[in-house]
Amino acid sequence: MKKEFEEEYVEVNGIAHFLLHYPKAPDAPVLLYLHGGPGSMESLFAYELDKAWGDMFTQVHWDQRGAGKTLLRNKKLGMPETIEQMLDDLHGIIAYLQRKYQIEKLVLLGHSWGSVLGSLYALRHPENVLSYIGTGQVISMMKNERTAFQEVWKMAEKAGNRKHLLALANLEDYPPDDPELLLKKLPKLRKIQAAYDNGPGSGSGQGELLKLLRRSPSFRWNDLIGLIRVMKVNHPLHLQLLSFALTDYPSHYQTPVHYILGETDTIAPTSLGKAYFDTIDAPRKTITVIPGAGHNPMYERPDEFATALRAVRETL
């Protein structure tokens, strides 16, 4: 029986990077999925996306520097430090995929932190990008946190959840200006946000997350070690990311741009994504907002996300 996926390690910028491929027909466009975090690999959930997306794309997942199987393979080597370093890694990964699949351009899909990498790469290297797709699109980290705090407060009020309202009140003036203090408070906010989100493991406890992971054909028990080490390893990158704002860069894209957003995303608020999208100048641009979906619309509303993705596929 033919294996439906391929795993490999590729040497880029001095370390071995893990790639997971779901190959389709030779004429299917290649889509490189850029996971969130930094450090939150999503390759272990790729089997769910492959079921929903079918034969639209040859799907490739990359465990970035400091994430997942790449983190485990390199031990103390190759820890992530800057956004520029990650963009350089991405450039090397894309060059490898161009050789492997004999293509000039590929589709980039950036999720959350991955949307930072994807947006910046699309702006810098349109010659390599067939189309950019942003989901859980990050616009400005500080604006994200400020708006997210306000929106999740409204959700807690609507739900009448006094426990969440008290926890939010205890965060006081959020987000604080001190980056280190913000990184200490941020997990507390994320824990509350997870109750209103439906991504892998969100609000469902560690037991449910482990079930999702164990069903993955690429899961190994030592993958859990990578999950535990994520925050410590990626701390310098998280600090730098707090000062990131996509609005600091020109919004003129030379490649098509498509946003697929969750209506109730509290982590990367859709209101900010829509406002920035209106400023984008691109050869083609579309935006789809999926009702009832949060920060992980591809997992929360797989059918609706696949429909939006299929519309993008038809424009290529």
TrEMBL record:
UniProtKB keywords: Hydrolase
SUPFAM superfamilies (UniProt xref): alpha/beta-Hydrolases
Keyword Hydrolase appears in the UniProt entry: yes
GO CC entries: membrane
Any GO molecular function: aminopeptidase activity
Coiled coil: none
Gene3D superfamilies: alpha/beta hydrolase
GO biological process: proteolysis
Record-annotated AB hydrolase-1 domain positions: 29-302
Signal peptide annotation: none
Family: Belongs to the peptidase S33 family.
Protein name in the entry: AB hydrolase-1 domain-containing protein
Organism: Eisenbergiella tayi
